[in-house]
Specification:
Elements: E1 3-11, E2 30-33, E3 39-46, E4 52-58, E5 65-71, E6 84-87, E7 98-102, E8 108-114, E9 121-127, E10 140-141, E11 149-156, E12 162-168, E13 171-177, E14 190-192, E15 197-206, E16 210-219, E17 226-234, E18 246-249, E19 263-265, E20 271-277, E21 286-292, E22 305-306, E23 313-321, E24 328-337, E25 350-356, E26 360-367, E27 372-381, E28 384-392, E29 405-412, E30 414-419, E31 426-436, E32 438-447, E33 459-469, E34 479-482, E35 485-487, E36 494-500, E37 502-509, E38 516-523, E39 528-529, E40 534-537
Parallel strand pairs: 33-39, 33-40
Antiparallel strand pairs: 1-24, 1-25, 2-32, 3-4, 4-5, 5-6, 7-8, 8-9, 9-10, 11-12, 12-13, 13-14, 15-16, 16-17, 17-18, 19-20, 20-21, 21-22, 23-24, 26-27, 27-28, 28-29, 30-31, 31-32, 33-36, 34-35, 34-37, 37-38
């Protein structure tokens, strides 16, 4: 089997001891959990304050228990070795999967399915930074019915609420829960159903408290469905925002085993999404990309833009990355010959790893402010592989010496590799690894310069003027926030915030005024980003009524 690793840019318009800190040695990664039995399916969520949660399933007792560890930005474990036990409720060994994220208050929100009541149902937990169970020791039951409830997903909104979606039989159910653990959409949530089967939801927060959900509509036999892909935006009340769902693709050719798509915000509360299909039924898969705007419009051609016109090859496993300061999106994929890599770099894309006997599989992508990083494993022997990464400039050139760097140079089985978004000048990667015979959970950071290990925080500042338009508010009581930092203006309205380097949304709020924000504020090391001004308009307390009086007789 031969394959190639390719990256393409589209224009927007169309056993070692657990480390005290991050290891700086690709041959000695950080152990997150090495308890007896299999440790499986890690998930990553990084908080606004820079802490990272890593959740996983642990088979140390013969049941797939749920465990969670919390690390600071330096890689120090903040809880006990091997993390804390979240749930030991009985689980179905065939379906140990779930999802997790971090909310605006640095809590971890988790969801999975288990059989604690005899049937597969979905559950939700909110874990505080000190490890306490905010929603109770047994979490909150999202479902409690006789249907097969599976593959729950979760996202958290800017308002601090958590939204969940999962498969329930032939339908999808959505539920919103506030930070206190109160269900917002009725005890049983909102059921989405149709003539055909709806399944495999994915969620993205947009606006203040809205979400966008991608989902499939399947018809035909379950093992060979005709699969169409849609998306809808839902308001804070769970009502559809768009007049009709956005059609991502109704061309067909998507297999039953192609379920979770790369799905990223376009920077304006629309999204990019990518997948592979064999819509022309020629036994060769191709990669497609679609762009849906914040209003639900289709920005690219119907059914997507084909990422490459290279014939005679299979194109699989697409991933997307978008630099924060760019209007371009990058798509990369794995290219295989028939035995089983737009259009800015030619119709066939740009090849970074040539077709050879070495099997290369992409596992993630991330954007910095100006470019992208792609992560992949490289087969060494049998099921063993090493983990590498490349940072690519907009012109397709390599930004790290030697073109690629090792994230893990140990030849071992690495599966369920996952990566967080770029934050604190680094990415964090976690995976299952059998280097010590049994499957354990490992993690490693990767810095912007391609090195591993100690993260040296770099700071800059944001400065601006706050103005109150109307009302009787006190300017010094306006709360100005960026990332995890908050301040208040002086009596003249001037404020300054010291924050780690990065890209921020700066927000200002005061009771009695409409909140205001400025997005895409770039902070550079030891520099002040000035002129980030915010004007708050007073919320009217009185109004007036106009109309017409009509005399019908007399």
């Amino acid at each position: 089997m031969k394959n190639v690793f390719i990256l393409v840019m589209l224009l927007a318009f169309c056993s070692a001891e657990s480390q005290a800190q991050w290891s700086n040695n690709a041959a000695v990664n950080n152990i997150i959990c090495d308890l007896a039995g299999e440790q499986a399916i890690p998930k990553i969520a990084t908080c606004p304050n820079g802490d990272t949660y890593i959740g996983y399933f642990s088979n140390e007792t013969g049941n797939y228990n749920v465990r969670l560890q919390r690390l600071d930005a330096q890689g120090n474990e903040l809880w006990a070795t091997d993390g804390i036990l979240i749930s030991s409720n009985a689980s179905d060994p065939w379906f140990p999967d779930g999802d997790m994220t971090a909310d605006v208050n640095n809590h971890c929100v988790m969801t999975w399915q288990d059989i604690r009541n005899g049937n597969n149902n979905a559950y939700a937990y909110r874990i505080a930074p000190d490890g306490s169970f905010v929603w109770g020791a047994n979490g909150i039951a999202l479902s409690n019915n006789s249907e097969f409830n599976a593959s729950p997903k979760v996202t958290c909104t800017a308002a601090g609420n958590a939204v969940f979606a999962w498969i329930s039989g032939d339908n999808i159910i959505m539920q919103k829960i506030n930070a206190a653990g109160v269900k917002q959409w009725g005890d049983n949530g909102i059921t989405l159903s149709g003539t055909n089967t709806l399944n495999w939801p994915q969620l993205m927060p947009v606006g203040t408290d809205d979400i966008i959900m991608k989902y499939f509509e399947d018809s035909g036999p379950p093992n060979a469905p005709t699969r169409h892909v849609f998306a809808q935006r839902y308001s804070s009340t769970g009502s559809p925002v768009w007049a009709s769902p956005a059609v991502i693709s109704d061309a067909g050719g998507i297999s039953a085993w192609t379920q979770i798509f790369p799905f990223i915000n376009d920077g304006s509360d629309g999204f990019y999404i990518a997948w592979h299909d064999d819509r022309d039924n020629n036994q060769l898969a191709s990669v497609w990309v679609q762009h849906i705007t914040s209003s639900g419009g289709i920005a690219f051609a119907a059914n997507g833009v084909e990422a490459t016109s290279q014939g005679g090859m299979n194109h699989y496993y697409p991933y997307l990355a978008k630099p924060a300061g760019s209007d371009d999106v990058y798509v990369f994929w794995n290219e295989m010959n028939g035995l089983q890599s737009q259009k800015q770099w030619g119709n066939n894309g740009m090849s970074f790893i040539a077709v050879s006997a070495t099997q290369v599989t992409p596992w993630g992508a991330g954007g910095t402010d100006t470019d992208v990083m792609v992560m992949y494993d490289e087969a060494t022997s049998g099921a063993s592989s090493t983990l590498k990464a490349m940072r690519i400039a907009p012109d397709g050139s390599f930004l790290w010496p030697g073109n690629s760097v090792f994230v893990s140079s140990v030849s071992s089985s690495k599966v369920h590799i996952t990566m967080n978004d770029f934050q604190n000048n680094q990415w964090i990667v976690s995976w299952e690894d059998n280097r010590n015979a049994s499957s354990d959970i490992y993690a490693q950071n990767l810095l912007l310069d391609g090195t591993l290990g100690y993260y040296d925080p770099q700071f800059g500042s944001i400065q601006g003027q706050v103005t109150l338009d109307g009302g009787t508010g006190n300017i010094t009581q306006v709360q100005v926030s960026a990332g995890n930092e908050t301040t208040f203006p002086d009596p003249t309205g001037f404020y300054t915030l010291t924050v780690p380097v990065g890209t921020y949304t700066v927000s200002a709020s005061l009771a009695g005024y409409y909140p205001e924000s400025v997005s895409s504020v770039v902070v550079l090391e030891d520099q002040a980003t000035t002129g980030v001004d915010l004007t708050l308009e007073a919320i009217p307390t009185t109004g007036y009524i106009t109309g017409h009086v009509v005399l019908t007789s007399g």
